[in-house]
């Protein structure tokens, strides 16, 4: 495969994950001269940066002085990919472990059709590898998003269209990014992948799952006020950006009812 791929990993206090992640990347089967790993540290205050500099000198490292958020940090990486004439970027979470052929399978599917803008790998739960983390994600018309197939037993499947890709493991064509733009940096974190997938479909691109491209995710479900704030705020930003005005008027009663219900449910 001759396509150049930039693997972008955003790191924030991820020292405990990096050994497993980078070790798995060192074994991938994609031609060595055709991919590059770019790590963007988002203001870590643990040993992440020291670990990378000491053990993984072949990795290109950009250090942000503060946490710019998942969206803006990835934008820095994607801008690097565009500037340096890569064909694709692959966004990979710090808490993942990849199968050796994950990248070539994603590239193979992406390049099988010029209308494919992004390809998600099959995400399996690392701590329960017989269970699915995501096989492509879904969007409710009110902007709520959820992982497709979450915690279901893994099963054989063919490539398929998906609504939007999980930002933890997705290959995006540079040509598509030039058409639709990068992440909305206002999102900071959460829902930026929802917005990206939505914009890809609106611009006529397909988003697909590559089931032979497998990534294991050390996913842990968590709740916090901060997470709830960003998910709700960004849910509204997503629908405001992507729906027409008349559609927003149509769904506004449902949004109001849902928000009232969620407010009382939170107590």
UniProtKB/TrEMBL annotation:
Any one Gene Ontology molecular-function term assigned to this protein's record: glycosyltransferase activity
Q: What are the Glycosyltransferase 2-like domain coordinates in residue numbering?
A: 7-179
The highest taxon in the source lineage is Bacteria
Family matches, as CDD domains: GT_2_like_c
Keyword field: Glycosyltransferase, Membrane, Transferase, Transmembrane, Transmembrane helix
Q: Which InterPro entries match?
A: Glyco_trans_2-like, Nucleotide-diphossugar_trans
Transmembrane stretches, start-end: 243-265
Pfam families of this UniProt entry?
Answer: Glycos_transf_2
The entry assigns this protein to a family as follows: Belongs to the glycosyltransferase 2 family.
Q: What is this protein called?
A: Glycosyltransferase 2-like domain-containing protein
């Amino acid at each position: 495969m001759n396509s150049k791929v930039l693997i972008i990993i955003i790191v924030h206090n991820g020292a405990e994950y990096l050994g497993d992640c980078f070790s798995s990347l060192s074994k991938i089967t994609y031609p060595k001269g055709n991919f590059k790993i770019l790590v963007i540290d988002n203001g870590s205050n643990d040993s992440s940066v020291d670990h990378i500099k000491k053990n993984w000198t072949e990795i290109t490292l950009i250090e942000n002085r503060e946490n710019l958020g998942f969206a803006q940090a990835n934008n820095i990486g994607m801008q690097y990919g565009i500037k340096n004439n890569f064909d694709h970027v692959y966004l990979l979470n710090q808490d993942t472990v990849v199968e050796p052929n994950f990248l070539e399978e994603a590239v193979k599917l992406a390049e099988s059709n010029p209308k494919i803008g992004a390809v998600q790998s099959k995400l399996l739960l690392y701590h329960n590898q017989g269970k699915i983390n995501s096989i492509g994600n879904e969007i409710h018309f009110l902007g709520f998003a959820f992982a497709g197939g979450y915690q279901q037993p893994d099963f054989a499947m063919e490539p398929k269209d998906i609504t939007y890709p999980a930002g933890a493991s997705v290959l995006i064509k540079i040509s598509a990014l030039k058409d639709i733009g990068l992440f909305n940096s206002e999102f900071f974190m959460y829902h930026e992948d929802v917005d990206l997938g939505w914009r890809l479909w609106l611009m006529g691109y397909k988003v697909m799952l590559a089931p032979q491209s497998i990534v294991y995710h050390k996913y842990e479900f968590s709740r916090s006020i901060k997470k709830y704030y960003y998910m709700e705020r960004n849910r509204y930003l997503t629908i405001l950006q992507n729906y027409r005005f008349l559609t927003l008027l149509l769904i506004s009663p449902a949004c109001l009812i849902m928000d009232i219900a969620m407010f009382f449910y939170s107590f």
